[in-house]
Write a structure and sequence with these properties.
335 residues; mainly alpha; Tyrosyl-Transfer RNA Synthetase; 3-stranded parallel β-sheet; 14 helices; 3 strands
Amino acid sequence: MRTRVFSGMQPTGNLHIGNYLGALKNWVRIQHDYECIFCIVDLHAVTVYQNPAELRAKINETAALYLAAGIDPKDCAIMVQSAVPAHAELAWMLTCVTPIGWLERMTQYKVKSAKQESVGDGLLQYPVLMAAEYPVLMAADILLYQAGIVPVGEDQAQHLELTRDVAQRFNSLYGDTFVVPDTSLPTVGARVMGLDDPTQKMSKSATGMNHAVALLDAPDKIRKTIMRATTDSNPEVDFDTAGPGVLNLLSIYQAFSGEPDDTMKTRFTGMRYGDLKKQVAEMVVAHLEPFQQRYREITADPACLAAILRDGAERVSPIANSTVGTVKRRMGLYT
């Protein structure tokens, strides 16, 4: 039996090359080696207000981007979180066994609560539900499907550790129920930083015009964004002294091209930054143009896309319902 993998992303903002290189590309690589469930975590999105029509459109867009990246719905389940009611049901039961102090220590809660005067209960409970910001993964999701591996980056290790803590606490209170997910992070992809601020991870929620390259950006926009990327005061590429902006551009090129370190050094050492940016831009455009063509073909048939999402929910629902049934019986709830 293959180990089960669960991962997902929020259907908000615009998926960018950081999401592709850090998650989607890696999902494609591992999809035939594991039993994979790739989720669109729309319940996470509504911890803050979302325009309903825009949210529904983003759910379909995100699903189409999964497929355009190469996720095979015949081998993997692609599904929407809210289509499986067991997600919300298990989340409530896990909330009831999670100490509030665990939640208040979570970095995600501290950062988001500091930005607003009042914090909704959904936000306070959010760290219990989630295991990563984007990819988006919930503790309830992971445990619902008894996932053995959760492909998240090191910056999300705190959230995965919370998931492990919740699973272990439940198991100690009610008996062995949940698989405790692996923390070795064996399937993490490239970490892409913001083009305007290479000290911060590229984010869908960032508002800067030149922060990210979205997967659906037109070629001219991609080139313009990359040409405006932050570098450093040196006139040319020096691998020994390069600042974070230059290293980020080199990392993006290498992640798309797959070139080894020696080839990268031969190609770029001594190159002026303007030429480096042009080469990075053309590499990104070359990879995203066929990606965008596949996306257009997928979205041209909305009925097929809807069928894939329905099938995904139907495939995972027996697993989810079985877990919820077990949890209810262990807690003494009516079943």
